[in-house]
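Hi again,

Forgot to attach this to my earlier email, sorry! This is the prediction with succinic acid bound. I've pasted everything inline since the attachment limit keeps bouncing my files.
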Amino acid sequence: MVEKSKASKRGRIACSMTVRLGSITLDNPVIPASGTFGYGYEFAELYNINCLGSLSFKGTTREARFGNELPRIAECTGGLINSIGLQNPGVQRVVEEELPRLRACFQKPIIANICGFSVEEYAENSAVFDQEEQVAILEINVSCPNVHHGGMTFGTDPKMAAEVTRAVKKVTTKPVYIKLSPNVTDIVEIARACEDAGADGISLINTMLGMRIDLKSRKPVVANKMGGFSGSAVFPVALRMVYQVYEAVSIPVIGMGGVASARDVLEMMLAGASAVQVGAANLADPFICQKIISSLPEEMERYRINSLEEIIGGAH
Ligand code: SIN
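Structure tokens for the complex follow:
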């Protein structure tokens, strides 16, 4: 149990930042979100990343992918649009080259973000990561809005989300978290379908489908026309969805979407998140996760919180 002490006007209080995701204990709830933190070791050049609760690495497909055509980023008020298109070196190279580099500088449990273009591919990639000791959770990404015939196609239909969940559960003994898309009418229906199919947890939200148009060219800014919008502007939407899903399921929820401060982490946990991922904020400030973790004790003290575990779902 990690205990952080902090001097206060009321004397010294001890606060616990430890959280549990099922049987997995994290020193703190702060996790860089997939796609915003590479494979982690890149950030280890900037600071000791062992302060993180865990990290979710870039979404991985069976084959290597170059990703979508450029340009694939558009700036927006309160965030950005990305249309990366699941650029990654493919599952074998991730296991053989990227994970050993990460292991050399990060000794904590990690989350494998797994993508696919068919139910079979999700299962195959999951089976590979099932063999990796450091991988504690399989985060099944059925919510990427930037690829055709894959990603979000599986996460916007409860039957398909359930089918992917069942296929992955068959090939692994590790906890399976399904990462959901906010681009649906009823997020609760999808979350329930995943829980019924055996999911061990839910991650939400991925990015919101959006676009920008360049006034000079009168054409969409990103080559793929549309992309996933993320950043602080989506925080209230993410918070609302975490709140709704927490109420509907009895498995742990990892909350994400626009989180950029310790206060956002506390809000997410009050809504029902057992742990919290930080995404777009890493792109603006590569030190943001470290800053959030070091300011959490002070914010906990400000709001008289002794233990983060105790506030999960506290707003209900
Ligand atoms: C991308 O690579 O296009 C983003 C990943 C995602 O939205 O899941």
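Residues 1-12 have pLDDT under 50 and may be disordered. The pocket of succinic acid is lined by residues 35, 59, 82, 84-86, 141, 143-144, 146, 206-207, 228 (CB under 6 Å).

That should be everything now.

G.
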